[in-house]
Amino acid sequence: MSPEEKKLTPETTTPRTSSRLGQHLTLDGTITGHEDLELQGNFTGKINLALHDLVIQKTARVKAEIKAKNLFLHGELDGQIKAERVVIGETGRFTGDLVACKISVQSGAKFKGTIKISKDYQP
Question: How many angstroms separate the CA atoms of 78 and 91, rounded?
């Protein structure tokens, strides 16, 4: 099998999957998984997506302890974050403690808490 043919095999072209908690849903509990997640509704609890992305949309209200590879915050989050990269968008509001390798806080975002820059991310 040539290197070009190997690139086309199902094992190497597995698409990245994602899930969504809709705008009109409320969930309390623990979420763990091996895919990206988009939150549009309300969530309280723990989220462990250590190797995947978490997007908190502007309609979402979240109170949680979060571990994610990348976190994109456009809504409201109260809690603790451990991530490789955190982006707080202009509509994002964060209260709590944040540990990450890379942090971006856009103009208009609200932040209240502590930041610790980590040299490496341990999933």
Answer: 14
Q: What tens digit of pLDDT does each residue of 97-118 get?
A: 999 999 999 999 999 999 999 9
Look at the block and give the residue holding tokens 């974050």: 81
Contact 77/92 with Cβ under 8 angstroms? yes
Non-local CB neighbours of 55 within 8 Å, separated by 6+ positions = 36, 37, 38, 39, 71, 72, 74
Q: Which amino acid is located at 66 in the chain?
A: I
The alpha helices in the chain, defined as continuous H runs, are 3-7
Tokens representing residue 82 in the block: 């451990």
The separation between CA 61 and the C-alpha centre of its own chain, rounded to angstroms, equals 14
Domain range annotation of the chain = 17-115
**Does the CA dihedral 43-50-98-104 come out positive or negative?**
negative
**Side chain identity, residue 68:** A
